[in-house]
Amino acid sequence: MEALYFLVESVFSLAVYAFLLRVLLQLVRADFRNPLAQAVVSLTNWLVLPLRRVLPPAGRFDTASLVALLAVQLAATLIVFRLRTGVVYPFVPLAAAALRQLANSTLLLYTVLIFAQAILSFVPGSRSPMTAMLASLCEPVLRPIRRVLPVVGGLDFSPLVAILGLTALRILLR
What we know:
Layout: H1 2-27, H2 35-52, H3 63-85, H4 91-120, H5 129-148, H6 158-173
């Protein structure tokens, strides 16, 4: 039974991260010609495209992507909780738990993205679609830290500060 829980949670987590990446890529105005961004779009179009027919965009932001992300997270929380406990949870606490989990997932995703970008920065000549996508996603988080924190001896400590801050926020969410 534990294997089933693991598989269900893993599939839903991957789905939530795919929809989350789609929303974040839109927020940072990433280049959607990037092959990795195109993969995210392809993975999430099955839900976003039907929602676009009924949900107009809010300015330049695609509300259908956000609603799809929230729906997938809510479904994941509901199904995983139901599998684990056998109880149907009331909507308001369920929605609160889903939002808390989504916030935690966002913080964890940014922690991993910033860590990956920091590691790739040490690889000379690393020009790949992943590098460009990481830069566009991480720069809005790292830029304010770089304004305050000077480069010391040619080393940029802003990823370390960002990861520490993101981890502290995840601890506060618990």
